[in-house]
Design a protein that fits this description.
The structure is a single chain. This protein has a domain at about 10-45 and about 170-320. The chain contains 13 helices and four strands. It has helices spanning about 1-5, 15-30, 35-45, 50-65, 70-90, 110, 130-160, 170-205, 215-225, 235-240, 245-255, 260-280, 290-335; strands at about 50, 115, 120, 125. The longest helix has about 50 residues, at about 290-335.
Length: about 325
């Protein structure tokens, strides 16, 4: 019996079955797509809260000061990108912070940044002082993380093999852990991205002939570093782990037992971004955009559910492999005895 049990074939999670199971789970609990739908409707019909009048004078003053420091080639590059940067601030909505990363509710409208809807132009609310802008940004981020945590928690529950009732105390524990996780990720991002972007910007300014090559190299390095953290948040909701334990578990799972995680993430990104191009086809002043909002809500929820299923199957595979490794280490001692 023992030999038969040990000879059982254990395989890592499969790519296609994970996605199929994820979309089936969302189809059976279709009410979950209300989360991303409501968020997109807020961005579509809500106010446009921006800081253009606050940021534009500072940006133009910075360009004038750079004219006395940097070579003419660099200034030409900055002037070329000036219009694009100003257009970005023209469409930037501070409410987009509700779509927090990496824990947050998916949104189609964040990528579109609408200025109008079928009822007319969005109501513009300009914020002209930094304290108010920072306070609003912080409030939106915290609410976005909390709402995103609820969304993740519900998705984890419908994909679990034993989906018992989600109690209030468990929800509070998850919210606490996800806020701590968000703060950890924020500090990690600042510690990694800020020095990297400063270095890349310096290289680009003094060697403009390199073009986008430094940014491409930085992107490849970041992908290699961040890939093991792909499931760093899943353990909080699916495994009831603390943020630190969830991050370390994801690192060990991906590096040692699931080297195919990169393919899973690639398919998820291509599926999400490819269909987003389809959902974004109608103009924002067309009622057909509702079809895109519903389609995006279902697809993004299904992909997230598939990631939880892939993670759960991967954890089962890792535990079984660890058990077998421990059994092999104990086998020589047992034989001697």
């Amino acid at each position: 019996m023992e030999k038969s049990a040990n000879s059982q074939v254990v395989t890592p999670p499969k790519l296609i079955p994970s996605f199929v199971a994820g979309f089936n789970a969302v189809a059976n609990h279709v009410y979950l797509i209300i989360f991303p739908m409501l968020l997109d409707l807020l961005f579509w019909f809500g106010p446009l809260v921006r800081v253009k009048e606050l940021v534009q004078p500072i940006f133009e003053r910075s360009l004038q000061e750079m004219a006395n420091v940097y070579p003419p080639e660099t200034l030409d590059l900055l002037q070329t990108s000036k219009e694009a940067i100003l257009q970005f601030f023209n469409q930037l909505n501070l409410l987009f912070a509700f779509r927090s990363y990496p824990v947050g509710i998916p949104s189609l409208m964040v990528g579109i940044a609408p200025l109008n809807n079928p009822l007319g132009n969005l109501v513009v609310m300009e914020i002209t002082d930094f304290p108010t802008a920072l306070l609003l940004l912080l409030v939106c981020l915290v609410l976005g993380v909390i709402c995103g945590g609820l969304f993740f928690g519900f998705i984890a529950r419908i994909t679990a093999t034993k989906n018992g009732r989600l109690g209030f105390s468990e929800i509070l524990s998850q919210m606490k852990h996800v806020l701590i996780y968000f703060i950890l990720v924020l500090f990690m991002a600042i510690g990694i991205l800020l020095p990297s972007l400063c270095l890349i910007s310096s290289i680009t300014i003094f060697l403009p002939s390199l073009g986008s090559i430094p940014y491409f190299v930085l992107g490849v390095i970041l992908v290699w570093i961040l890939l093991p953290f792909a499931f760093s948040v899943h353990g909080i909701f699916a495994g009831h782990l603390t943020p630190i334990n969830s991050i370390s578990t994801s690192f060990r799972l991906v590096r040692k037992y699931l080297p195919g995680t990169g393919m899973f993430l690639l398919v998820a990104i291509l599926l999400s971004q490819g269909l987003d191009m389809l959902w974004s086809t109608p103009a924002t002043n067309n009622w057909l955009t509702i079809v895109g909002i519903v389609g995006h809500a279902f697809i993004s929820s299904g992909i997230l559910a598939a990631s939880f299923i892939y993670y759960s199957k991967g954890m089962e595979f890792m535990r079984e492999m660890m058990r077998r490794e421990a059994a092999k280490k104990d086998l020589p001692q047992a034989t001697l005895n």
